[in-house]
Amino acid sequence: MIGNGFQINNIVSDRAVCGSGAEVQGSGFQIANSHFINNGYPATFAGGGGPWSDGLTVWMCNAAGPTRSSIHNNTFANNTDIDLVVGGGNGCDIYSNTIQNTAVHAFAGMHIGWFPGGGGDHSGISYFNNQISSLNNLMSFGLLVGFHPWNNTVNLVSAGSVSGNTVSGAVINLQIEADTTGTASGQVIVGAGLSGAQGNWTYKNGTTCSISTNYAVNPAHAGRISFDAGYFPLLYDNESCTPQ
Q: Hey, how many other C-beta atoms are within 10 angstroms of the C-beta on 17?
């Protein structure tokens, strides 16, 4: 859906074949109290599988005048690519969503990413109070800030404001891998919200990266993003990782 001021409330997107359970782009919209579940075919630990599907793909999330867009109080479960991925925006609140994979693998639970519409500029977006969880080896990244694990030539302009989120059970619960230019802004507040990292299914069943950790950052690729101490220093570019 592309437009301004629309509302998506109390719907279920279930078992889309591939691509995404829903795709949106616009200003001053609301998506609330809805379920994006079981979309896409699963990957296999040995490689292959698919076609995969996001739960919800947000190309751009803007404000319409004083009215901010919002994505809140939704459930994302057992989608096979990324449960919730956002490409950028200038006025949007994403909060109080439940994201979980308990039956099939996802490459990420929530991705602060890059799309042509949003351009990787999340400076007007707040991500807060989202609950992300996974069973063993069913989520590569719980919360991923940046596009580098797929392509390190694509940089964020800003990570926006990220705070108060809880992430548990992913292989890497939080990864920041966002910017090679040294300019990306934003703030990621970790707090005590990360626990129980487990597994080794990131890409290619752990053959390119078998590291599991609650919190990883590549400081050389974090631009001017503010983030907490206590991270594991990890470069994660182009589907492979190297401790720093």
A: 9
**Structure token pair of residue 82:** 């990324």
8 Å CB contact between 62 and 41: no
Query: What are the residues facing 7 on neighbouring strands?
Result: 30
Q: Which of helix, strand or coil describes residue 219?
A: helix
What is the C-alpha to C-alpha distance for residues 215 and 213, in angstroms, rounded to an integer? 6
User: In the chain, how many domains are there?
Assistant: 1
Return the structure tokens found at 151.
């392509």
CA distance 206 to 229: 26
Domain enclosing residue 39, as ranges: 2-243
- Tell me, what's the pLDDT at 49? 87
Give me the residues paired with residue 122 across strands.
none
At 48 the pLDDT is 82
Q: Give percent of the chain above pLDDT 90.
A: 93
Pairing of strands 226-227, 185-188: parallel
Would the pTM of this model clear 0.90, i.e. be above it? yes
Residue that the structure tokens 């230019």 belong to? 181
Measure the CA–CA gap between 79 and 52, rounded to whole angstroms. 8
> Which regions of the chain are under pLDDT 50?
none
Q: What is the model's pLDDT at position 205?
A: 75
Within 99-206, residue ranges assigned H as helices are none
The two counts, helices (H) then strands (E), for the chain are: 0, 27
**Distance of alpha carbon 27 from alpha carbon 6, whole angstroms:** 8
> What is the reported pLDDT for 45?
86
Which pLDDT score is estimated for 157?
Answer: 98
| Residue keyed to tokens 């990306």 | 184
